[in-house]
Design brief:
726 residues; alpha/beta; 29 strands; 29% helix; 19% strand
């Protein structure tokens, strides 16, 4: 999700005001599913969000292509990333062991190769605004030369410190935060954040491997401006030569291009020069006028800097797929320095069908120009593959098996919901959807196997599972719905054959077997098709940054006795856990878990569930609400809500509460009391909420729990090297 934000922050220490520029910024870049990637919270906290988000986006791209971690392991897959400097290291005040790899920019590409065990090279490319499209160009060369058999090309951009640097004053940034590319009122660009990743293969190999193909890259080229009016000034000559070189490389006539995704920054200097280069390139091939639509994604999402080229590339690929050209925004009156009437191109200002004549495939060019003079152009063509053959596939109704899996309950529920929304409108067959999910996804602790003969039947069974309580899901096996949670992963393989009993196969999967699906499908493997990707369960991982305090001059005092010597000091000593006491906890009794935002409460909930206890999650909210079985929200400032909670959980006092674990003061922020409002909120969520809870027990005449544990963090140093508790 993109949002436009701006503001001014006044520093209380007589420093000048800091003005932040408006832009298209991503929400919640602090969230990351570290557990999914087997990364510890300590390491995740030290990782630049560029690395974290790129991991998740690349994983989604690979899943969309139908490739699972198992199939990628050891493969000759290259990683090519367009990126530049990272700023997260500026927030790390004390160097930690994970900080160096977490903030070394070249590791953005290498970390993905490390996690997936990819055997080809990892490349970081920095050509400024053309970096991500240059990554595509280098990935193409890697595929052609045999450096890799599959490639990921990516671009990423974050602005952690979006300070207004006065770029509007020199014509680079728009004064009203709108990119008016090729318009008479164009006055600069607007900045944005984004992550893009595409999966590339040779066309013949993609067909051989039954891949889903969005579009075909026909050719590409890169060049440099050389000597121009200034090191950052664009060159119309170089841009014209670039476009001609890319289409020569593609081996197809330039006049067959019917859409061009321009670099299109919307600057007074750049737009006329780019149009001069475009016109010069096309005029070398044809004199036809206004036959090619022109667009710029920067008018929609802003200038993504090093990710900008790939953003335009992906927009064009989707336009080819949907056979429609999106509108370019904020174009009203043509730039007076551009002669559109006698130009081969026209600015497309509304969504229009993409049609061609004489059976020529839809073709497009994508341009990206770097601030330092490195330019790139890629030629795209729609994919016109043959329809999949049904020869050899059994006629009539066929029972298929769909498997869904996730590492956490939250991700599993979200994945289930994604499939429920996906199935009603999918153009793909039940068989291909199931094959892709079974062979192109990972299989984890939360597992579902469903047998169905049609898409409608499959949708109905997924809805049935969603609406069935956990305690009743075991009874769904008779309907061909096998759901399970594996407390411990079983290293067990099951070689299924085409004639394997269906119920046996469902049960083997649900109980943890690694199914050899290729053997079960035999020679009818089907196609990889786009299906919902894994929904990550993001948790906050961010460095604990403490702003510098104003230096205060303290008069020198005569040496006196250290007052610390007059008091007892707190000393921590290790102690073994009392396993016998933990084992003696009464099963069935409710335990109230006032859950935190660091994940401790959710972890305890899962552990207590596995131990046969009855944990009840209680979250802070605005009103008293029962979210689901054993999950509530209440307002910490309302004493009556605590009474309602106690009545609901104890069934009016008939069922005892075994204990309370209060985690509301566990936070991701080291100090949450930097002003009176934050101090007051901490008091409400801390001591006052516990007081209201005890008053609730008293008011309802219900015995107090045997144990009440109040847990907080950042309270004491345990050992000097440990730092703060987290």
């Amino acid at each position: 999700m993109l949002t436009l934000r701006s503001g001014i922050i006044s520093n209380k220490r007589n420093a000048p005001e800091i003005k932040y520029r408006r832009g298209a910024y991503l929400n919640r870049i602090d969230l990351f599913d570290a557990e999914f990637f087997n990364i510890t919270p300590a390491e995740a906290r030290c990782m630049d969000p560029l690395q974290r988000i790129f991991l998740e986006v690349s994983w989604e791209a690979l899943e969309d292509a139908g490739y699972a971690e198992k199939e990628l392991n050891g493969s000759r897959t290259g990683v090519y990333v367009g990126d530049t400097d990272a700023d997260y290291l500026k927030l790390i005040q004390e160097m930690e062991p994970y900080a160096l790899p977490g903030n070394t920019i070249s590791i953005v590409a290498s970390r993905l190769a490390y996690i997936l065990n990819l055997a080809s090279g990892s490349h970081l490319i920095d050509t400024a605004c053309s970096a991500s499209l240059a990554a595509v160009h280098h990935a193409i060369k890697g595929l052609i030369t045999g450096d890799c058999e599959m490639a990921l090309a990516g671009g990423l951009n974050l602005t952690l410190f979006p300070i207004d640097e006065g770029l509007a004053d020199i014509g680079i940034a728009s004064t009203d935060y709108k990119a008016r590319t090729f318009d008479a009122d164009a006055n600069g660009t607007v900045w944005g954040e984004g992550f893009c990743t595409v999966v590339l293969k040779k066309l013949k190999n993609a067909k051989r491997d039954r891949d889903h193909i969005y579009a075909v890259i026909k050719g590409s080229a890169m060049n440099s401006d050389g000597k121009s009016n200034g090191i950052t000034a664009p060159s119309a000559r170089a841009q014209s030569e670039l476009i001609q070189a890319a289409w020569r490389n593609a081996g197809i006539p330039l006049e067959t291009m019917t859409y061009l995704e321009a670099h299109g920054t919307g600057t007074r200097l750049g737009d006329p020069i780019e149009m001069q280069g475009i016109t010069g390139a096309i005029r070398s091939s044809t004199d036809h006028q206004q036959f090619c639509a022109l667009g710029a994604v920067k008018t929609n999402i802003g200038h993504l800097d090093t990710a900008a080229g790939l953003a335009g590339f992906m927009k064009t690929v989707l336009a080819l797929k949907h056979q429609a050209i999106p509108a370019t925004l904020h174009f009203h009156d043509p730039n007076p320095h551009i002669d559109f009437m006698n130009s081969p191109v026209f600015v497309n200002t509304e969504l229009m069908p993409w049609t061609t004549s004489n059976g020529v495939p839809r073709r497009a060019g994508v341009s990206a120009f770097g601030l330092a003079g490195t330019n790139c152009h890629v030629v795209l063509e729609e994919y016109q593959g043959d329809a999949p053959s049904a020869a050899g596939i059994p006629e009539g109704p066929e029972i298929s098996i769909l498997t869904l899996s996730a590492k956490s309950r939250g991700s599993f529920d979200a994945l289930l919901e994604r499939f429920i929304l996906y199935l009603p409108d999918t153009p793909y067959t039940l068989r291909d959807i199931c094959i892709t999910s079974n062979t192109g996804r990972g299989h984890y602790a939360y597992r579902l196997a469903v047998a169905a003969a049609s898409l409608d039947e499959l949708l109905g069974k997924l809805l049935l599972l969603r609406d069935t309580a956990d305690s009743d899901r075991a009874s769904l096996k008779k309907a061909g719905i096998h759901y399970a949670y594996l407390e411990q992963r079983k290293n067990r393989s099951y070689n299924a054959k085409p004639n394997t009993d269906l119920n046996r196969l469902l049960d083997e999967y649900a109980t943890g077997s690694e199914i050899q699906w290729e053997d079960w499908y035999g020679k009818h493997q089907g196609r990889r098709v786009p299906i919902p990707v894994y929904p990550f369960s993001g948790k906050r991982h961010w460095i604990n940054y403490i702003p510098e305090q104003e230096t205060v001059s303290v008069p020198q005092q005569p040496a006196v006795r250290n007052m610390d010597d007059c008091f007892y000091s707190l000393q921590w000593v290790p102690k073994e856990l009392d396993a016998a006491k933990a084992a003696a906890l009464p099963a069935g009794q409710a335990w109230l878990l006032f859950t935190d935002d660091t994940g401790v409460g959710v972890f305890l909930f899962d552990q207590m569930k596995q131990a046969g206890l009855r944990p009840v999650l209680v979250e802070a909210g605005d009103s008293f609400t029962k979210m689901q079985e054993d999950s509530y929200k209440l307002c910490p400032e309302t004493p009556g809500h605590f009474e309602q909670l106690i009545v609901a959980v104890t069934d009016g006092g008939h069922q005892p509460i075994g204990g309370v674990v209060h985690l509301w003061t566990c936070t991701e922020i080291r100090s949450g009391m930097r002003n009176p409002l934050m101090l007051r909120e901490s008091q409400i969520r801390g001591a006052e909420s516990l007081l209201y809870l005890l008053k609730g027990f008293k008011a309802q005449n219900i015995a107090f729990p045997h144990e009440i544990r109040a847990v907080s963090n950042y309270a004491h140093l345990v050992t000097p090297e440990d730092g703060y508790l987290s």
